[in-house]
Write a structure and sequence with these properties.
Elements lengths: L1 E6 L4 E8 L2 E9 L11 H23 L8 E7 L3 H18 L2 E6 H7 L14 E6 L4 E8 L2 E7 L5 H11 L7 H8 L27 H18 L4 H30 L3 E5 L6 H14 L3 E2 L11 H15 L1
Parallel strand pairs: 1-4, 4-5, 6-9, 9-10
Antiparallel strand pairs: 1-2, 2-3, 6-7, 7-8
Helix pairs in contact: 1-2, 3-9, 4-6, 5-7, 7-8
Length: about 325
């Protein structure tokens, strides 16, 4: 079975080809134009998707050595995302499926992130039930993955997501968009012998549920930035490193504590970490340590290219949906 999948929910145009559950090829175009506006402009994003999607299809099919009429299943992200961007991928997938009289499968973007754990893994390797944190610039959710086709949301953000919060703080620090990776890189430059003014940010964890809240934390970081600008008339390199280290530290602390709490409350046998924030080096280290010390299987995408928005995760979710229906 050949599957051709499209992901266009935000600012990445991605096309992937699978043969059964094995990735044959994936090409992704990231829209660097949004760096100038420090955020995604929906109409611009949609136009850029339309400009690049057909070239990506051509490259992926060439890598696989097949023609379009060989594809058995077409799939695309249906929701959530920017409506103009989603429309490009959905329209292309639907048109090709109708033209070639093939199966069309719509995939929920966040379910795609969850199923990214199965890229380069066999189903037998997973231990269900699993508690999964899916976090990016657009969402921040906890899921109880009971079995392959049973997914229950047990927690989410009540305001900003972790990634969105980082982007907003990064904008005030004049970091490129998206800011998460740059905050991570700056935090890794922390040297306790040099950087002695690490800000103390609030650890916000609502006690009555498994939800997240990052709005207050974001506001505290913005106040810290304002204070440092008043002190130095600008943000210095030292300020960048100290704020990034402190801010990333509290973000990863909140995410890991909530994920571990959810694992204990649900009795999940394993833990998963997916989405763009799963590429964060500090968060990965915390969860790897917890996994080793408590002998609990821990899963995150096999490759960094599966952490951000990508068509391979849409394709693998579509593959398992096709198997379910066959």
């Amino acid at each position: 079975m050949y599957l051709l999948a499209f992901e266009s929910s935000c600012d990445d145009t991605s096309v992937a080809l699978l043969r059964d559950d094995v990735l044959i090829s994936m090409h992704t175009h990231t829209q660097l134009e949004h760096i100038q506006t420090l955020g995604v402009v929906p109409e611009v994003a949609a136009r850029l998707h339309a400009d690049h999607i057909f070239a990506l299809i051509t490259r992926v099919l060439a890598d696989g050595g097949i023609e379009l009429n060989t594809v058995d299943v077409f799939a695309a992200t249906s929701e959530p995302g920017l409506v103009p961007s989603l429309l490009i991928g959905k329209t292309v997938a639907k048109t090709l499926a109708i033209a070639h009289k093939k199966t069309l499968i719509w995939v929920n973007h966040i379910e795609g992130h969850i199923f990214s754990i199965l890229l380069e893994r066999k189903l037998e390797e997973l231990h269900f039930p699993m508690i999964v944190l899916s976090a990016s610039g657009w969402h921040n959710d906890l899921f109880f993955w009971k079995s392959l086709y049973e997914i229950e949301k047990v927690g989410s953000t009540v305001d900003d997501s972790a990634g969105e919060s980082m982007d907003k703080v990064g904008r005030s620090l004049w970091l490129p968009f998206p800011a998460g990776r740059y905050i991570d890189e700056l935090a890794q430059k922390y040297d306790p012998a040099i950087h002695k003014n690490i800000p103390s940010f609030p650890l916000v964890l609502p006690e009555w549920n498994l939800n997240f809240s990052f709005s207050g934390l974001k506001s505290a970081a913005l106040r810290e930035i304002e204070l440092r600008i008043k002190d130095h008339d600008k943000i210095t390199e030292t300020d960048l490193i100290e704020i990034s280290y402190g801010y990333q530290g509290i973000i990863t602390n909140i995410l890991s504590k909530r994920l571990i709490e959810a694992q204990k409350k649900t009795g999940a046998k394993s833990i998963g970490l997916v989405g763009g924030v799963s590429a964060n080096s500090a968060l990965r280290k915390i969860m790897e340590k917890y996994s080793e010390e408590n002998n609990i299987p821990y899963y995150t995408p096999k490759s960094m290219r599966y952490c951000g928005d990508n068509a391979a995760m849409i394709a693998i979710r579509a593959y398992w949906e096709a198997k379910k229906s066959s």
